[in-house]
Design a protein that fits this description.
Structural class: alpha/beta
CATH topology: Rossmann fold
Bound molecules: adenosine-5'-triphosphate, magnesium ion
Largest sheet: 8 strands, mixed
CATH class: Alpha Beta
Number of strands: 8
Number of domains: 1
Order of helices and strands: EHEHHEEHHEHEHEHEHHHH
Length: 318
Amino acid sequence: MLIALCSLKGSPGVTTITVAVAAEWPRDAERLVLDADPAGGALALRFGLSVTPGLVSFAAAARRNPDPALLWNHTQTVSGGLRMLTAPSNGRHAQAALRALVAASGGPVLERAARAGRAVLFVDCGRMDTGSAAEAIARRADALVLVAGTEDDELAALAARLPELAAWTPRPALVLSGQGYATGEVERELGVPVLARVPRDPATAATLAGRTPIRRRRAGGLTRVAAAIARALATTTSGQHTSPPLPIGAIPGVPPQHLRYPGTLLPGPPHPAPSQPASPARPGPKNPPPGGNHPATPSAIAAPGPENTNLAERRQQR
Ligand SMILES: Nc1ncnc2c1ncn2[C@@H]1O[C@H](COP(=O)(O)OP(=O)(O)OP(=O)(O)O)[C@@H](O)[C@H]1O
Ligand SMILES: [Mg+2]
C-alpha cells in the first residue's frame, strides 16, 4: 500500500503527521516512511540517521536493477521498528534522486514495492508545487492525504488546487491543522469533508521530530488523531477496489462531520455546497472552535480572486 502525504502552502506539519500515522499503523505491517520532499529531506537530520543508504542510493540501484525488494536494503530503522528512507537536505539533490527514481527502468518501483507483502509506504511529498518532482509518486498512490493550514492564504491555495489533486488517487483525504478557521467552516466553503483536524501538540510533535524515541511518545492529541487517520486509511485502502470506504462519521476518534459525499473521504472536485443559512456559522456542538482566532466568516475563506473563482461564485449564489 502506498500512501502519499503533501501540503500546498506553508509548513502545516506534513512530515510530522506522516511519521505519526506510520507510527500508529498496525505493527503487523512493514512500515516505511519515505522522505520525498523536493525541497530537501528532513528525516535524516531529525532522527540522527545517515543520508546513505537512502533515496539517492536506492534511485541509483533502481536504475541498474528494477527489483522492488531492493528498496528495503536502503532503509534505516528507528525506535519502534519504523523504517525510514532518508533523503539529502539539499533540495536539488533530493529532486535529482526523485526524478531518477521515477524514470528508473522496470516501471514505478515504489508502487511495485508497495504492492508486495504487508508493506505500507508513507511518502512525505512535501509541498506539492506544480511540476513537483514528487508528483509522479503521489499520482500512483492508493491514497493522497492533503495536509493544509487554516489561515486565509493557506485555504486559498487549497481551494485552487483541490479539484486537481483530489482526482489523482482513488482515495484523496483532507487533513487540517493550525489555529485558523473552524473545520466546519472549511467544509462548508470547500464543499468537501475533512478527515481530521490535527491539534496543536508541541510535546508529541517534538517526539515525532526525533527528539525523543517514538516508542516513548506521549499519548497526546496528535497521537490520537494520527491513530484515527491510520484507521481510516487502513479501512478505506484495504480492498479498495471492491468495497466502499468507511464514512468519516463512523471513524472512532474523528469528530462526526457533515458529509458532502457519503461513502468517500474526499471524492473529487468540490460541488456547490447545499444552501446554508445566511448568517455565518457559530461554534457549537457540531462546529467546535479548534482554537481558532477568527470569527467564522465564510466570505473570508472565499475571498474573490482568480485562484478562488468557484468559491466566490458559490458565495454569490447564496
Ligand atoms: N500538531 C503540532 N503541534 C505542534 N507543533 C507541531 C505540530 N505539527 C508539527 N509541529 C511542528 O511544526 C514544525 C513544522 O512541522 P513539519 O516539519 O512537520 O511541517 P512540514 O509541513 O513538513 O514543513 P516543511 O514544508 O518545511 O517540510 C516542526 O517544528 C514540528 O515539530
Ligand atoms: Mg516536511
